[in-house]
Write a structure and sequence with these properties.
single chain, 64 residues, mainly alpha, 2 helices
Length: 64
C-alpha cells in the first residue's frame, strides 16, 4: 500500500480535477474525479484505522 502522503496528494489532485471539470462542463472528467477522490478517502480511512489500531496495541501492550 502506498504511503499516506500519496493518498493525500491524490485527494487534492482529484479535487482540482473536479473543479476543472465543473468549469469546463466535462461530466466524464467530473465522474473520474469523484471516483479518484473517493478512492483516496477510502485509503486514507484505512491508514487512520491502522494507525489507531497501532496506538491501541502500544497503549495496552498487546502484540500485533
Amino acid at each position: 500500500m502506498e504511503s499516506k502522503g500519496h493518498f493525500e496528494f491524490q485527494e487534492m489532485a482529484a479535487q482540482l480535477k473536479r473543479e476543472a471539470a465543473l468549469l469546463t462542463g466535462d461530466r466524464l472528467l467530473a465522474a473520474e474525479a469523484r471516483t479518484e477522490e473517493a478512492e483516496a478517502r477510502l485509503c486514507l480511512t484505512w491508514h487512520a484505522i491502522v494507525d489507531t489500531a497501532t496506538e491501541i496495541r502500544q497503549l495496552y501492550g498487546v502484540a500485533g
